[in-house]
Write a structure and sequence with these properties.
alpha+beta, 6-stranded mixed β-sheet, 8 helices, 20% strand
């Protein structure tokens, strides 16, 4: 279906166009790593980094969205952009066809002014830079410092474009720039997109295994509160990985049952797109106390009360009931 179809609801057009923009952002991310000049700067802390890939991917996404849908409110992780300088960074989605996602009736009449876009141009920056450092040192195999296969860190990297209306996540795009990296000669990258109440496109949904419980959580923001929350759900296995987008992908791929993160470490641009796609698939994402995460344009960027997400088919309320009260009390709004 052409992206130019005038009969499609606006939200469908924006999500479908963003698939194109995310694909281009993924290519930018791969190209910058190939060139070997990441341009790393430190933001809030030594663990909070920004690279030229973050900046260039955000220019691509925001420039393209602003060009095609100028009345959207767009909030990007890498700060305010001068939209006058983004024209040459943008892409026209009408030149590239992609399947449009079905939009439910209650979202079909949304206007641009009613939609807030939360953009994380490179979720998993720490893993992106660590994978680059291992490659530059010509290291192969298991990295003793990181305790993982170096190239596997690229699995953690995603591009996230989330859409909200009336404070709720309603649609999202997740692009994995390095999907298929294990298969030399294969085309790199995969994009998944969806609208809440509609459907999920771009991947088959897989249920997690019965008879055991797999939890995914942070690999870089661990604390006694985080660990107490994980222990409380009595997992058989814990997957400590980077990137909120990657963790939710594990839920959709059937590799984990629940994502537990009892910490204020992530932001709205980390969770908006993953939440929308997870909910479109039948899963649930709330804060660690079970409250909805607000996505109004004026909402604080930080998710100060953590994240709890369950895979489709799992009983979210069961996991929520297992989170200790002292863990909930430790996280203040």
């Amino acid at each position: 279906m052409s992206l130019a179809s005038q009969s499609s609801p606006l939200l469908s057009k924006i999500v479908s166009s963003s698939v194109v923009f995310a694909n281009h952002a993924g290519k930018i991310i791969r190209d910058i790593m190939k060139k070997g000049e990441l341009g790393i700067v430190q933001k809030e802390s030594a663990r909070d980094l920004q690279t030229e890939a973050d900046r260039a991917a955000q220019r691509c996404i925001i420039g393209s969205l602003a060009r095609c849908f100028p009345k959207l409110t767009i909030i990007g992780e890498e700060g305010e952009e001068d939209l006058q300088d983004l024209g040459q960074q943008s892409f026209d989605p009408t030149t590239e066809a992609t399947e449009q996602v079905r939009c439910p009736p209650h979202l079909a009449s949304l206007s641009e002014e009613e939609i807030v876009v939360w953009v994380d141009p490179l979720d998993g920056t720490a893993e992106y830079t660590q994978a680059f450092e291992c490659r530059e040192s010509d290291h192969r195999g298991v990295c003793k410092t990181l305790g993982v296969t170096c190239d596997s860190l690229l699995d953690h990297v995603t591009v996230l474009i989330g859409f909200a209306s009336a404070g709720k996540a309603v649609g999202g795009v997740i692009h994995q720039p390095y999907y298929n990296y294990q298969n030399p000669g294969s085309e790199l990258g995969r994009t998944i997109w969806g609208i809440v109440g509609g459907e999920v496109c771009g991947m088959p949904l897989v249920s997690p295994p019965d008879g055991r419980l797999i939890v995914t959580t942070t690999r870089s923001h661990s604390s006694s509160t985080v660990n107490d929350a994980i222990d409380a759900v009595s997992p058989d296995e814990v997957l400590r990985v980077g990137g909120a987008g990657h963790k939710v992908m594990l839920l959709l791929e059937g590799k984990a049952h629940v994502y537990v993160f009892a910490s204020p470490g992530c932001k709205k641009w980390d969770t908006c797109a993953p939440q929308a796609i997870l909910e479109a698939a039948g899963g649930t994402l709330t804060d660690i106390k079970g409250a909805l995460i607000p996505y109004h344009s004026t909402a604080p960027h930080r998710n100060s009360t953590g994240v709890l997400a369950s895979a489709p088919g799992q009983k979210h309320e069961v996991f929520l009931a297992k989170i200790p009260q002292h863990v909930k009390d430790n996280l203040k709004a």
